[in-house]
Amino acid sequence: MSHRYVFSKEAETDLIEIYRYGFINYGENKADHYIETLKEKCQFLADMPNLNPCRDEFNPPVKMHHHRKHLIIYVVEDDDILIVRILHDRMDIQQHMEK
């Protein structure tokens, strides 16, 4: 049974910015491919939501999974997951999670 993932408004904005950066710096094909691989990873996480440990230092607690240069930050909601943010691994995660 396939589970679902849903993006928060902030995560949707993150995706747009990731695509924009990739498009400007690497071209349309690579930007499209990277976004597609991010979405595939989100589906993988939806199918295996408890793969990553809970990070209690954040409020509310979240789970995080690396995908290339980005962290997919999510919470488990019943059998589905909410993608809270998708942040570059060089970003100050704590600062962006407080917004």
Secondary structure: elements and pairs:
Blueprint lengths: L4 E3 L1 H18 L1 H20 L6 E2 L6 E6 L2 E8 L2 E9 L4 H5 L2
Helix pairs in contact: 1-2
Commentary on this structure:
With 99 residues, this protein is of the alpha+beta class. Helix content is 43%, strand content 28%. It is built from three helices and five strands; from the N terminus they run E-H-H-E-E-E-E-H. It has helices spanning 9-26, 28-47, 93-97; strands spanning 5-7, 54-55, 62-67, 70-77, 80-88. The protein has a five-stranded mixed β-sheet. Strand 4 (70-77) and strand 5 form a beta hairpin. Helix 1 runs antiparallel to helix 2 (28-47). The longest helix has 20 residues, at 28-47. It is globular, with a radius of gyration of 13 Å. The model has no long low-confidence stretch (mean pLDDT 90).
Profile the largest sheet: 5 strands, mixed
Sequence stretches where pLDDT stays below 50 over 5 or more residues: none
Portion in beta strands? 25-35%
Anisotropy-based shape: globular
Trace the largest sheet across and list its strands. 1-5-4-3-2
> How many β-strand runs?
5
pLDDT averaged over residues: 90
Count of helical regions? 3
Question: What gap, in angstroms, lies between the N and C termini?
Answer: 34 Å
Helices and strands: which structural class? alpha+beta
What portion of residues is helical?
40-55%
What series of H and E elements makes up the topology? EHHEEEEH
Compute the gyration radius: what is it? 13 Å
